[in-house]
Write a structure and sequence with these properties.
The protein is α+β, with helices and mostly antiparallel strands and 148 residues long. 24% of the residues lie in helices and 33% in strands.
Length: 148
């Protein structure tokens, strides 16, 4: 998880396979943040969740939201974009990507937070970038780049 209020910063996360990248930008407060979650539920490894709550959707999202609000980002002005949740191993046996996405959607709904754009699913990993100045989010996937 990273937050920034420096307009020249570009936040990046690599290797979004079944993981999810979540960006939040508040254009009025000039605050941007990015969270990379790996698993839906912290109950799978409570010790890891205590040492790294950002790893799990259910503990990472509340901590991320608290950090954004502490940095001055107003929830009603957030622009939220998500990417990832793919099946990259050739098998969907555990459906981690889908479980991450469903858990995230439920948490956002309960928090009254809407998604402005998303690129989820499929079978290819993505790299996600966010420019703090503008809130622009773009993805790289299989040699292609596009705005989200």
């Amino acid at each position: 998880m990273r937050l920034s209020s420096s307009p020249d910063d570009v936040l990046v996360t690599h290797g979004l396979g079944s993981c999810l990248g979540i960006t939040v930008h508040d254009p009025a407060a000039h605050v941007g943040g990015m969270l990379h979650v790996m698993m839906p539920a912290s109950t799978t490894n409570p010790d890891k969740a205590r040492s790294n709550p950002w790893m799990f959707v259910d503990t990472g999202i509340p901590a991320f939201f608290s950090a954004l609000e502490a940095a001055g980002a107003a929830r009603r002005k957030w622009k939220v974009k998500i990417a990832g949740g793919a099946t990259v191993s050739g098998s969907d046996y555990f459906a981690i990507g889908r479980k991450n996405y469903v858990t995230l959607k439920k948490m956002l709904w309960k928090a009254g937070v809407l998604i402005d754009a998303e690129d989820v699913g499929g079978n290819i990993a993505r790299t996600m970038h966010m420019e703090v100045r503008s809130g622009r989010v773009w993805l790289n996937k299989s040699g292609q780049e596009w705005d989200l």
